[in-house]
Amino acid sequence: MTDRIDRRSGKYHVVHMFSAMLLIASFSVPANAADANSQAKMQLGREVFTKLAAPNCGICHALKDAGTTGEIGAKLEELKPTASQVAEAVRKGVGAMPPFEGKLTEAQIQAVAYYVSQAARKGN
Ligand code: HEC
Predict the structure, then answer these.
(1) Are 55 and 6 part of one and the same domain?
(2) N or C: where does the chain have the smaller number of CB atoms within 10 Å of the terminal CB?
């Protein structure tokens, strides 16, 4: 008797878990490779912005998403630069901003350019 109840509740759990997994799968499948790739780029870009660049971007630039308040360079939310504008500035430097070409890898430059262009549009 108790055996039968246990089995039934066990079966219920399996079915329940299976439908929960289907539900999760149906949401996560459209998160395709491109989305995963841009998420990874955003993450690396934020790291370059706040840590990996030396001196790091946040010392001179305010960007809400990165939690930085530097005042030597432009407030990036106000400038809203395109990714290629950021990449150009990072490679060659601008005025008091030093060039980072050779100090950051190409992948890091691409990531920080993408990140800044996206994050600057997100913050007001
Ligand atoms: C030592 C301070 C300093 C650091 C470090 C610095 N910048 Fe700048 N940045 C400036 C100054 C000064 C300017 C020129 C005036 C302005 O536009 O704010 C500038 C300009 C820019 C511009 C505008 C370029 C344009 O087309 O007008 C972008 C975008 C930018 N910086 C992004 C970055 C990123 C990303 C990093 C980190 C990899 C970085 N900066 C590091 C000081 C700095």
Answers:
(1) no
(2) N
Q: Among 124, 114, 59, which Cα is nearest to 83's? A: 114
Query: CB of 72 closer than 6 A to ligand 1?
Result: yes
pLDDT tens for 59-97 read 999 999 999 999 999 999 999 999 999 999 999 999 999
20 in ligand 1 pocket by Cβ < 6 Å?
Answer: no
- The total number of residues shown for the chain amounts to 124
Q: Do 70 and 116 fall into the same domain? A: yes
Is residue 99 within 6 Å of ligand 1 at its C-beta?
Answer: no
Cα-to-centroid distance, 96 and ligand 1 (Å): 8
Q: Would the pTM of this model clear 0.85, i.e. be above it?
A: no
Within this chain, do residues 53 and 111 fall inside the same structural domain, yes or no?
A: yes
> Residue 49: which domain range?
33-122
